[in-house]
Amino acid sequence: MSPGTQFVISGKPVLREALALLVQGDDFFSGAVNVVTDPQQTALAGFGAIAIAQARGLLEPAAIQVQ
Amino acid sequence: MNILTIDTGTTNTRVFAWRDGEVIAHSARQVGVRDTAITGSRHTLETGVQTAIQETLHHAGLGTDQVDLVLASGMITSNMGLHEVPHLLAPAGMGELAAAMVAAPIPAIWHQPVWLVPGVRNRVDHIGLHNVEAMDMMRGEEVESMALVKRLNICEPAVIVLPGSHSKFVSLDGAQRITGCVTTLAGELLQVITHNTILASSLDSGFADEIDREMLLAGARSAKQIGLGRACFSVRTLDQFTVYDRNA
Question: Measured between CB atoms, does B118 come within 8 Å of chain A?
Fold first, then answer.
């Protein structure tokens, strides 16, 4: 992990804000901090499982779209 | 194409029905592998997952014969779940996870094989006190990480932070493979400290409604310098002798 590694922070709004501030206030990390929005983390596990199943060839490409 | 996805954790199970990439119904039950650990039986978990599936199908207006694929991830693949699948060794990305999927018969919840996504563990051998800090594992966060890779188009090395009862920090390399993770008890500690310690009074048994940047960073600095236990007691001291409150 390098100082420029980007952070992607999910979770409840107040936790996302707190964690983002902690990373931004850290002396080691200087990379981008991306805070995930609520729509971006909707049904995350299912979306990921479908994406992996698609990579396995279990469903046609049209069954999943990037949101 | 109609798909059901099952996400079973330690205490909760969530089932979603999808059609053409969109959620059309969902249901959640407060049942997870903790029930298996407590009762010594899988019956509660099986019943809870099956009920969540039936509720989701009902909300979606689907019959069992209209579902083309059932996918499951999370603690359902653990030794306390419904079908154990060994962890995949990091590094593991979309391709490795896809190749390691297992179609398992779990007749207690579904009449056809359920496709299970394995968890991922750090690549550490001969684990002992000397290297336990390097070891860690996940079941469920790997699918969430791959979802964020796809939704956010992550294409550079990254750390994905997934706060929860057991907060995960998932490390990705430039090829979007999971190279490892670090887990903390942060969520559980926050819950216990807020509700079941002397600080419950100072905190009104709740988390801050808004973040005060100065106080947040001061707290983090304090915990780093003098330890979490002492830093926590400072909250009571500030409550007793200053004007600060839960929101600082």
Answer: no
Number of domains chain A contains: 1
Answer whether A8 sits within 8 Å of B210, measured CB to CB. no
- Name the pTM for this structure: 0.93
Question: Which B-chain residues 27-66 have CB contacts (< 8 A) with chain A?
Answer: none
Closest-CA residue of chain B to A48:
B147
**Residue A65 predicted with pLDDT over 90:** no
Percent of chain B with pLDDT over 70: 100
What's the pLDDT score for residue A66?
47
> Looking at the structure, do residues B139 and B68 belong to the same domain, yes or no?
yes
Please report the pLDDT score of residue B97 as a whole number: 98
Picking from B145, B148, B129, B224, the residue whose alpha carbon sits closest to that of residue B179 is B145
CB–CB contact A19 B161 (8 Å): yes
Q: Comparing C-alpha atoms, which of B76, B78, B75, B58 is closest to residue B66?
A: B58
Q: Which of helix, strand or coil describes residue B146?
A: helix
In a domain, B146, yes or no: yes
- Do B194 and B101 belong to one domain? no
Domain extent at residue A11: 7-59
What interface predicted TM-score (ipTM) does this complex get?
0.93
Question: Is residue B11 located within the same domain as residue B98?
Answer: yes
